[in-house]
Amino acid sequence: MSQADEWNDSHRAFLQAFIARSTLTFQQAKPLIASIQTVHEMREVLNEDITEADFNSYIFAANTRISPFDLQIRSGFHQTTRERICALVNITSDPIIQLATTYTPDEISFLKRVLDAMFETYNTPRHEVMAITSMQAVRLHKSPDDRRETQNGSTTQGSSGHGLKVSEAEKMLKTLVDEGWFEKSKKGFYSLTPRALMELRGWLIDTYNDVDYEEDEDEERPLRIKQCVACKEIVTVRDRKCPACKTEWTGTDFVGERAAVKANKRGKSGGSSALDTSRITANGAEEDDEDNGDG
Description:
Elements: H1 9-21, E1 23-25, H2 26-41, H3 52-66, E2 71-77, E3 84-90, H4 95-100, H5 105-121, E4 132-133, H6 134-138, H7 166-178, E5 182-184, E6 189-192, H8 194-208, H9 257-266
Antiparallel strand pairs: 1-3, 2-3, 4-6, 5-6
């Protein structure tokens, strides 16, 4: 693509379209770039004429222009579909502070409680679910004991302490899905989207990985936010291979919804719900009975 070597109106149109969408895949970009090139070159350009190299050149050109504003288009892989997704992210400011410009303090407090549940309550050495069901999420509409803080101790300034109504929590979850922060699976689990993982990457690691942990020779450092050793991508779903680099896993345990499904199968004799982890209570503690099954 000859015009990719210098900034022109086609790049401006692409960047404006990208900003309007926040995320873009190659398949979504093909008709967009084809339309832009048709106008810019004054000749018909078909979707099939657009290559991944064309897409990458537009991304590169856009990044050179937006980097002075602390913005960057990053790419990652959807952890279930394995599709490459590009997202526009802010690379400097606290992402939670960014959200505070859109949501109320009580809504931000609710969001933090949901993230705490995803990455602390339902992310244990036994069951690394890192997802939350609708019922589990809505239960968090009010802060425990009306305390205005998350499980890791951070405080949301300006929060009323009254939390949200159930209907407001449900609306907030829908908004987070609509805006591309959360995605909801067919089984009813909420998890972070690839865009959210790219945007919140540093914050998640700083918040949920125990940086003050005193290492012991016989113990491994507890890391709630797992990264593939090969590609360094955050992993919230694990089946047979890393969703990003396709490296084979060792071991037999799953990460993500399948961890919850596995827990349910082990706990079926207790009559657990198909959408609730069998070993985790509603208030967040993992029941520590004498279960000698595999972790």
